[in-house]
Write a structure and sequence with these properties.
Chain lengths: ~400, ~110, ~180
């Protein structure tokens, strides 16, 4: 095995080496435990890095420095945050429902960690290669809505309840475009298994990869998936349920200390896992962007793409204003749902029009016309003034 | 592999508990919860029989049990939506969800 | 393995039945709805143990992800989270309990009588999502379309039934005769 393959498969080889210490009948269990430990160590580590990145990045976008006291340039801030959240007093309101109040963050974190089981982070590096892997991920994602409701209701606080109901309504509304926009990739691949979807995108024509994002329906699907993913994880500009200026802290108003840290962790981990799925479905998973870059390990490409996605999400958070609840719901039901359904039609047409330049032109034109028409129809009553700019002096 | 009888007994138990909820509780929403439990118990029966059926001689690729269960899940969800809509509408009219008080049709 | 029953099945079955019992006996409606969710999860685990992957994940997606949330929303909209002004159990609760016990006894008797040899499982059927999709499009296309129409009708019906009446009386007949 030459050096680049060995580097590519280094974690798989490590797992087999650890398995070798155990008797034969115990080996699958040990392999699974090693993989789970790797997931539980990696993604919270990325979470720690992301908190610093986000606060510094948002600070710079908003024309200020982020945290810069702890460690050089503030990069040890997660350590300080971790110590703070572990040592803060855990206050439970007296009239709160204690059992449900305790279980809500637990259910959230468990459900989110379960979703990482079908994410292929590299060649041969997926915890469970399930036949219906994508369905498993979406099913688990639907369970997180219930934990948010539990958190909001058990606090017996009007702000929490309002925030929880808004969050659940938002998540349910955006679940449909999320699922429909991912069905396009499933349709063209012919399988619900995430490993097969990545493998279907791993070919090259010339030096350009076969990623689905480079096709008209794939690009539309990717954009729609990312918008729905932002709404599913309550990220700006869809963060009205936890808007700091609106609802104190929304559904986790009454949580302090470690439980708040668990919610925070769960939210960011959910963001990573759904970004990972966007990468798997449309951006080629662990595939290299150009054929001559194949010597870089597959897991390195995956994490590079994940980093790019995280930076993009942070950028969006700092740039776009928050959407109001009714604008949010209108957008989901009146714009995204018709676009995803049309995307399905276009992907089917793509498959049956055969190879050649005609299908590119037809599919792109259909999607572009639909986008423009739908936008015009939905915005016809808005009276927007001319654009003006104001700069901080 | 666990014998078929075990799955059927569990399904019968859940069905009986759902029936008890539907017959003894007073809140209309709890009755709907009981109905959902009964439908789920029937689904479990369907899937258990699908799994334990002999696959050598079958039409339709032997997927009948699974298909029935999947359609049943979809129909049960639709029925839950309509039933809960009815309960909400009734509550808006009479401000109560007490089944023992829902004895007349006159508004 | 006790009497041929695996430990995983035993634990999941206990979880399911306990969830159902909790849904029957708890006083607080939201707690009942949450224990119903636990029952749904237990049933999904049972489907997975039976090798029905697609049915198990659909159960989680539809029941836990949608029906449980629907039930919880309905409870909140009818203000059932507080203390109700009426008692929990209906006045004829004993009759209901007896009927449920009789039904369980009948079903249990039917199961016990008809399985003298306790059928063991054949090899697990290799069902892929692709075969389910193919079956849905070929043999079961009529039920699929009918279920699609049914879901659309249910969607529109639920929205119309639960929609609040408009405040302004459009006409005298409608205002007095409506509902």
């Amino acid at each position: 095995m030459n050096f680049s393959t060995r580097l590519d498969q280094i974690f798989v080889l490590l797992q087999h080496w650890i398995e070798g210490f155990f008797p034969h009948w115990l080996q699958p269990a040990v392999g699974a435990v090693v993989a789970v430990i790797a997931i539980v160590a990696t993604f919270p580590g990325i979470f720690a890095v992301t908190t610093v990145l986000e606060r510094k990045g948002l600070g710079r976008i908003q024309n200020r420095l982020g945290p810069n006291r702890v460690g050089p340039l503030g990069i040890l801030q997660p350590v300080a945050d971790g110590i703070k959240s572990l040592t803060k007093e855990d206050i439970v309101p007296r009239s709160a429902d204690a059992v449900v109040h305790f279980l809500a963050p637990v259910v959230l974190v468990v459900a989110i960690f379960l979703g990482y089981a079908v994410l292929p982070v590299g060649r041969n590096m997926v915890l469970m290669n399930m036949d219906a892997g994508l369905l498993f991920f979406f099913a688990i994602g639907a369970s997180t809505e219930l934990s948010i409701f539990m958190a909001g209701w058990s606090s017996r606080n009007k702000y929490s309840l309002l925030g929880a109901l808004r969050a659940v309504a938002q998540m349910i509304s955006y679940e449909v475009p999320l699922l429909l926009s991912s069905v396009v990739a499933v349709m063209i691949t012919g399988s619900l298994s995430t490993v097969k979807i990545v493998e279907a995108q791993s070919g090259f024509t010339g030096i350009f990869p076969h990623w689905y994002v480079f096709t008209p329906w794939g690009f539309a699907g990717f954009v729609l998936f990312v918008i729905a993913a932002l709404a599913e994880t309550n990220r700006s500009p869809f963060d009205l349920p936890e808007g700091e200026s609106e609802l104190v802290a929304g559904y986790f108003t009454e949580y302090s200390g470690f439980k708040f840290a668990l919610f925070f962790l769960g939210e960011y981990l959910g963001m990573f896992s759904i970004a990972g799925f966007a990468i798997t479905l449309f951006l080629g998973g662990w595939g290299a962007p150009f054929s001559f870059l194949g010597f870089v390990p597959s897991w390195a490409w995956f994490f590079l793409k994940l980093l790019a996605a995280i930076v993009f999400f942070i950028w969006l958070r700092g740039t776009l204003p928050r959407l109001r609840q009714d604008q949010l719901m209108n957008f989901a039901w009146k714009f995204m749902l018709p676009m995803t359904l049309l995307n399905l039609l276009v992907a089917g047409a793509w498959r049956f029009l055969g190879d050649g330049w005609s299908r590119w032109v037809i599919c792109s034109l259909v999607l572009l016309c639909a986008y423009v028409l739908l936008g015009r129809v939905l915005m016809r009553h808005q009276r927007l003034g001319p654009r003006s700019y104001r700069y901080a002096e | 592999m666990t014998p078929l009888a075990a799955f059927l007994v569990v399904a019968a138990l859940v069905f009986a508990i759902g029936l008890a909820i539907a017959l003894t509780r007073r809140n209309a929403i709890l009755v709907l919860i009981g109905i959902e439990l009964m439908l789920n118990a029937a689904n479990l029966n369907l899937i258990a029989f699908w799994r334990f059926s002999p696959h050598a001689n079958r039409h339709n690729d032997g997927l009948t049990g699974m298909m029935f269960a999947i359609f049943s899940i979809a129909v049960a969800a639709a029925e839950a939506a309509v039933g809960l809509g009815l309960v909400i509408a009734y509550h808006r009219h009479t401000k109560t969800t007490d089944l023992d008080a829902m004895t007349r049709m006159k508004g | 393995m006790i009497f041929g029953i695996s430990i995983a099945f035993l634990l999941t079955a206990i979880l399911t039945v306990l969830g159902a019992l909790a849904a029957a006996l708890l006083k607080n409606l939201v707690h009942c709805a949450l224990s119903l969710t636990v029952t749904f999860a237990g049933l999904a685990l049972l489907y997975l143990q039976l090798g029905a992957q697609f049915a198990g994940f659909s159960q989680i997606l539809v029941y836990i992800g949608a029906v449980a949330i629907l039930v919880v929303f309905a409870i909140l909209l009818t203000r059932g989270a507080g203390i109700p002004e009426y008692r929990d159990f209906s006045s004829s609760w004993l009759a209901g309990l007896v009927i449920a016990a009789a039904v369980f006894a009948l079903l249990g008797w039917a199961v016990a009588r008809s399985f003298p040899a306790n059928i063991a499982a054949s090899a697990a059927p290799a069902v892929t999502v692709q075969s389910i999709g193919a079956a849905l499009m070929s043999t079961y296309v009529l039920p699929l379309e009918i279920v699609a129409v049914l879901l659309t009708v249910a969607l529109i019906g639920a929205v119309i039934v639960a929609m609040p009446e408009s405040r302004t009386p459009k006409s005298g007949a409608e205002a007095s005769g409506g509902k």
